[in-house]
Amino acid sequence: MTRTIHCMVDDIDTEGLDFPPWPSEAGLRVYREVGKPAWRRWLAHQTMLINEYRISPMNPEQRAFLEREMVKFLFENCAQKPPGYVPRDG
């Protein structure tokens, strides 16, 4: 069943996530306050961070970095691309 929430990122009523995406208080906040469209944008940004910084999700310090970046991106509107980032065509 679809769950409708008021997305704090886009300031619209939209479909909510199906489950908390991160095992922390931040993940619960995302579940309660972030809609699927905003979450998809975060996933694209996260993929860019993983690729550019060569992050291993198995590394606890790097997972913590991704969580901090997720909060910046979704709630603080201050996420940045890595210095010198150039999008790849394709």
Provide a short characterization of the protein structure.
The protein has 90 residues and is mostly helical.
Secondary structure elements and pairings:
Elements: E1 4-7, E2 12-15, H1 25-33, H2 36-53, H3 60-76
Antiparallel strand pairs: 1-2
Helix pairs in contact: 2-3
General description of the model:
This protein has 90 residues and is mainly α. It has helices spanning 25-33, 36-53, 60-76; strands spanning 4-7, 12-15. The model has no long low-confidence stretch (mean pLDDT 94). A hairpin with a 4-residue loop joins strand 1 (4-7) and strand 2. The longest helix is centred in the middle third of the chain and has 18 residues, at 36-53. It has a two-stranded antiparallel sheet. It has 3 helices and 2 strands; from the N terminus they run E-E-H-H-H. Helix 2 (36-53) packs across helix 3. Helices cover 49% and strands 9% of the residues.
